[in-house]
Amino acid sequence: MGQVMWLDALNQFGGVEAWYSDPHHGNRLAQYASACMIFTYLTGRDPRQNPFRDLARLWESPEDSPTKQVSEEAAVWIKQQVWLYYTTGRAGASRSPRTPHPGVSSPLIESSDSG
Q: Which of 56, 78, 82, 111 is the most buried (most CB within 10 A)?
């Protein structure tokens, strides 16, 4: 799924420079997309319902540096794509849509559902 996401993102965000930090690694926007994919495939939850937009702090950044966020427009597109891939099984998803990974439970992931 990641490869299809990356190809679509290259078109959406204007090419290699907008998505990769070097020939082998995605930039922070690509890392955000990876986090959305991991969240969705582990929990089975819709990433579009998660308001989180913080970007990972770079290793060389001071600890007190301000947190940066992905733009609202980019976050919406990424979350829509991840949910599309997850629910349609595009790119060979191996599990049924909306089925969390077996045995995954974390107190760090709070449900936005009531009840």
A: 78
| 87 neighbors 81 (Cβ within 8 angstroms) | no
pTM for this model (two decimals): 0.68
User: Quick one: angle between helices 2-13 and 28-43, nearest 10?
Assistant: 140
Distance CA(93)–CA(9), nearest Å, equals 18
Residues 27-72 pLDDT 10s: 888 889 999 999 999 999 999 999 988 877 666 777 777 778 888 9
> What's the mean per-residue pLDDT of the chain?
75
Site of tokens 């997850």 = 86
Instruction: Give the three-class secondary structure for 99.
Output: coil
Give the DSSP letter of residue 19.
T
Question: Dihedral through CA 100, CA 101, CA 107, CA 113, nearest 10?
Answer: 0
Which residues have C-beta within 8 Å of that of residue 45, sequence separation ≥ 6? 39, 100, 111
